[in-house]
Structures are given as C-alpha cells and as structure tokens.
Amino acid sequence: MEPTAYVGVQEIKPLQQLLDKVAEHKGCGTSGGSGKSSCGSSAGPADMSPEVWEKVKNHPCYSEEAHHHYARMHVAVAPACNIQCNYCNRKYDCANESRPGVVSEKLTPEQASKKVLAVASAIPQMTVLGIAGPGDPLANPEKTFKTFELISKTAPDIKLCLSTNGLTLPDHVETIKSFNVDHVTITINMVDPEVGQHIYPWIYYRNKRWKGIDAARILSERQLLGLEMLTEAGILCKVNSVMIPGINDQHLVEVNRAVKSRGAFLHNIMPLISAPEHGTVFGLNGQRGPSAQELKALQDACEGEMNMMRHCRQCRADAVGLLGEDRSAEFTTEKIDAMAVEYDATTRQAYQELVEEQRQAKVAAKQAELAGLAGAESDIKLLIAVATKGEGKVNEHFGHASEFQVYELSTAGAKFVGHRRVDLYCQGGYGEEDTLPTVIRAINDCHAVFVAKIGGCPRDELKAAGIEPVDRYAYEFIEQSAIAYFRDYLAQVASGEIVHQPRGDADIRQGAYIAAA
Ligand code: CLF
Ligand code: SF4
C-alpha cells in the first residue's frame, strides 16, 4: 500500500532552493501573466520567423500546439553507444530520449525504410521520422545515415530528426546538413565537468576510454561545439536535459543559459526516471527523480530565457503515433513483412489539409474565448488536468486515460505545462480501486480534471481529494473550455461563492512509465 499523504510545495526544501536560484537568474520569471510566457514550445507563427515556423509547424516535438495533431515515429537502427550515463542500463533503450526499462526491436536500415512507408500510409498525420537509439545514433553513423538516405528518396515529405549525446556530433555536421536533417536534439545535462563527473562515469573517444572529470570535460566541449556548428548551419536544435535532484537540478539554469547563448531553439527538461529494477547506477543507489512541482518550477525558471518544451513523453526508440499514444505494437517487423505497402503522398497531403482546418478552428475558438477574459485582473493561477486522446479536445473518459495533460490557467489564458502518466483506472469495464489513489496523486496539484465522462465512484473520491471533476466540456476544445472554466472560477471567487485555495504537489508516476511500455 502506497502512502496517501500529499506533499505540500512548501515542504520540499530543494524546491525552495531552486526558487531562490530562479530569483537570482536574470531574465527568468515564473512565466508571469503577460501572455508572452506562451513563448514556450506552444509558440505560434507570430513568435518566430516564417522560415522557422515552416520547420516546426507540424513537428510534434518542436511545437506543443502541433503535438495534438501530428505524429512522429522512431526507427531503432542504432544499437551502440560511446558513453555511459548513470541513468542508463544498456539492456534498454537510450534513456536520453526514452524512458528506461523499454526495449525496442532493432532494425536494419532497409527494414526501417519499409517500416516508415508502412506507418506513413497507415497514419497520414505522421510527419516526422526520428532516430533516437536504442544507443546513440551518431555512434552508429553508417546505419543512421543509410536510413536517412533511403527515406529521403522514397518519402521526401517526411521530416528527418536525430537525437544524440553529442560526443561525435562535430564530426557529422556536414553529413547531417547534406541529408537535409532540419532538427537535431543534443542531450546536455551539464556544462561544468565537476557536475558531469557525477552523471557520466566514462566516455569512449578517439580510441580511448576517458573517466571522471576528463570524460565530462571532453563530452561538454564536444556537445557545445556541436551545438554551435549546427545552429550556424541553420539547423534547429533542441537540447534535452535530465533533471537529477541534488546533482544537476540547480545547475540546469546555467545549462539553459549556455545553450540559449549558442542558439538552441528549444530546451526540454525531463524528469529522471529511476527505479532499482532498471539496474542503473542511479536506480540502484536510490537517486530520486523530481516531483511534478519541482520539475515545473525549473521549467518556469528557464522559460524567461528561451522556449521550453513541456510535452515530451520520453518515448521509445521505436515509438509510433501521437506523443502520448503508443502504436508501436501495430508495426512489428512480422506485421510489416505481411503488409502490402503503398506510399501515397497525395492522400497524406489531403489528410493533413483537413488536420490544418481543424487546427485553425481550435485556434479561433481559443482566441474568441480569450476575448472574454480581457480586462480581468487577478493573480490567481491554477492547474487543471485533461483527459484527451488528441485533436486538442476533451475527448477521453476518466477511466480510459493513460495520461492527463496539465494546463495552467491565469488571466493570460490556458497554457500547456505538462502531462502526467497514470495507470488505467478502468480495466475490463471495472474501476480499479487500488489505482485511483495513484491517479489522484498524479494530478494532486490540479484544481479540476476535465473528462468526457466519469463514473460515480471516482467522481466522489476526486471531490473528497479537492479535485473537481468537470464533464460539461465533453468533446469541446481544451483551451477554449479551460478559459471558460477559469472565467467562471474567477466570478465565483469574486462573489464569495468559493475561496481560492492553493493545491499541494503531485507525483511523477515512474511505475506507470514502465507499465505503459
Ligand atoms: Fe523523435 Fe526526439 Fe525527433 Fe521528437 S522524440 S528524435 S525530437 S521526433 Fe519528442 Fe519523444 Fe520527447 Fe524526444 S517526445 S522523447 S522530445
Ligand atoms: Fe545510455 Fe543513451 Fe547515455 Fe548511451 S547516451 S549511455 S544509450 S542514455
């Protein structure tokens, strides 16, 4: 039986230290009510040049807004790695872009190419192919670039994306350019070798194994050089950082500053996922991951400096589908071998045009609702959790949700600030009594949960925990509904009908990441 106590934000000492650091950090704010705080990965065409918007507008990782509508896929063609991270166990996929404990089916470039065509035909909103493991793509350059070569010939409308630890990145920038890879992610967890030595026990570089501070220094220099070279070449760079409380959590503010000054487009701070059963150094020595509010505080801290990604799902090296859904099991090698694959770019384009229409309707609905908040004055901010299966709508039942999307509501509007994985409450048509407390703990910092439908029992328990179940916006757009809810909430506070109370902290459900794998 897990404990049911909720952790108040004020009870977490490291979080307070982090907030102090934030206050010192010039340019950072906790994303005030200016509305400009939306310059996170939810940024739109008004926030960037037309060329950049063209690159990000249907990339589900580079645009939060796009991730409700467009899908990505990974092909696991890169098994080897040239460094060791303390949060990684080589039995599993690279934890720099995947949650630990997940094993992907390895493919040859030829198998990968066929898989991409099969997925692109079945999922016309799949716009991006990424290579993110299971080891480091640039420690396997032949396989990685061969895969890009095959796909750029057969499916030129698909964007190519790459994720690396950065050690050999400077050696490959020219090749990356030559394949028109527009998006590269580098995992940078530190810019100070003193910090780095606690994350990386060794690297293998220029035919030699380096350890400790030397290893961390070389890695950091190579990562930052690679970043500079890529941004100079006009390639959009995202930096991933794993937040490891007590090791690099406060330092990530400096990492943020360093990568921003070198032209990174987006910073994705992800929680450490660490459990003894993963067999990693951190898992075995009891290193904890951050709480939901610790993660959010750090992301807020860095947001004044640059675009922050908050919708990363730490997906598998063979992930397929919208972020947050996992359709990889539909596309195993065995199944693909049995498929007759026909790549039809015209049908894909027609489908994507429909997606764009829906997307524009969503944006228009949000803007119209936002007008109703104009002139409202209040410091109140609150979080809501939303059950959704895509399209930017409240369209999932409470019991069927494997994650909740979290929005922060303020007079600036509704802003996506994260997601929480949960175990399914409804199993085989019945509510799982044991699961409900874990779901509640995952959204414990939220004032309300928006759902398409909810049963009587979870409704009562949520209310008892102080979370309002809201089903009156079923199948409506999320942001429009959230703004309408917030307007009502402010009115109720103003009339004295309710008293605004801050909520506590919430869990990042580590176990659920594994269960969903
Ligand atoms: Fe894949 Fe990464 Fe490209 Fe996206 S994932 S290589 S940038 S296409 Fe996206 Fe997945 Fe997070 Fe990565 S949600 S783990 S950030
Ligand atoms: Fe593991 Fe990825 Fe780190 Fe390599 S770079 S050790 S595969 S987490």
TrEMBL record:
Residues 27-48 are annotated as: Disordered. Pathway: Cofactor biosynthesis; Fe-Mo cofactor biosynthesis. The keyword 4Fe-4S applies. CDD domains: NifB, Radical_SAM. Its cofactor is [4Fe-4S] cluster. PROSITE patterns: MOAA_NIFB_PQQE (PS01305), RADICAL_SAM (PS51918). Residues 67-316 form the Radical SAM core domain. Keywords: 4Fe-4S, Iron, Iron-sulfur, Lyase, Metal-binding, Nitrogen fixation, S-adenosyl-L-methionine. InterPro entries: Aldolase_TIM, Di-Nase_FeMo-co_biosynth, DiNase_FeMo-co_biosyn_sf, MoaA_NifB_PqqE_Fe-S-bd_CS, Nase_CF_NifB, NifB_C, rSAM, rSAM_sf. SUPFAM superfamilies: Nitrogenase accessory factor-like (SSF53146), Radical SAM enzymes (SSF102114). The keyword Nucleotide-binding does not apply. PANTHER family: FEMO COFACTOR BIOSYNTHESIS PROTEIN NIFB, FEMO COFACTOR BIOSYNTHESIS PROTEIN NIFB-RELATED. Belongs to the radical SAM superfamily. NifB family. Involved in the biosynthesis of the iron-molybdenum cofactor (FeMo-co or M-cluster) found in the dinitrogenase enzyme of the nitrogenase complex in nitrogen-fixing microorganisms. NifB catalyzes the crucial step of radical SAM-dependent carbide insertion that occurs concomitant with the insertion of a 9th sulfur and the rearrangement/coupling of two [4Fe-4S] clusters into a [8Fe-9S-C] cluster, the precursor to the M-cluster. This is FeMo cofactor biosynthesis protein NifB. It comes from Aromatoleum toluvorans. The lineage of its organism: Bacteria, Pseudomonadati, Pseudomonadota, Betaproteobacteria, Rhodocyclales.
